[in-house]
Structures are given as C-alpha cells and as structure tokens.
Amino acid sequence: MPGLAAQLAAAHAQRQATEREIAALLEALPLFHLLTSLPGLGVRTTAAVIVAIGDGSGFRTAGHLASYAGLAPATKSSGTSIRGEHAPHRGNRLLKRALFQAAFAAIGCKSDLSSRVYYDRQRSRGKTHTQAILRLARQRVNVIHAMIRTGTFYEPRTLHLAA
Q1: pLDDT tens digits, one per residue of 134-147
Q2: Structural domain boundaries of the chain?
Q3: H-run or E-run covering 45
C-alpha cells in the first residue's frame, strides 16, 4: 500500500500545480477581475462562468444571458392554452450551476447584504429555498451583464433597512 499513497500524493500535487497554472491564466483576463468583484464569485466559479460565456459580448441583453443559463422562466403554450411560467429544463448546465452556487454563497456574505435581503424577501413571499436562490441567481445575471457591458466593478448598494 505505500505505493498507492505515493501515487495519491503525486496526483494531489499535480492537481495543485494545475490549479495554480489555471489561476495564473485567469489573472491575465480583465473579465476575471471584473467578475470576482461580485460577492459569491470565487476563482473556480468565475472560471466556470468565463468558460461558458467567453467575454460575454455575445449576449445583447441580460435576458439573453439568463435564457442561455437556463434561468429565464419559460411559458408553456399550445394552441389557445397558455400555462404559467416555470423553470426551464434547457440552458447551459455548467453556467446555471455556477450561478446557483455563486448566489448561494452570496447570501452568506457579510460585506454586502443585498443578496441576503433579496433572498429573504423571496422566502417571505412563499418561495422555497431553491426557488429563492434561483431567483437571486437570475437577478445577479442582470448585475453581471451590466458589469460586462459597462466594464465596471461591482459596487454594493447601500441598503436602508427599517429598524
């Protein structure tokens, strides 16, 4: 078994070296720094977003980006029958998962409470945890699209909470 432990250690060291190389490549991208300014978007999540959307210039509106990510609500219609909006089963799963994880991480962020306030508002309206996180992820797509379009870093809004 000592050979197996050595192989495992070598594989772990190789993985860490590869992660450092990827991080160095990401550091060279301006979009990386822009996206990591948004709470909840760390190195790995931002890498997944960049892989999925490239430089983001292919999305004219935030709605297009949300639709591509599978976060825009869909309506079922057939003939004269129109059914309510529901979560679509299409979209880029990698991007949707990354945005979901980023939204989940953002509700625990102490330096910017806007995500937590939005999440709590959705929960108070009767949404389940998953529904509230998905709505937060969709709302953050608007922010990400605006950041990419204008080239500005994220700046937290000041919240006026009632006492």
Answers
A1: 999 999 999 999 99
A2: 18-71+89-150
A3: helix 43-53
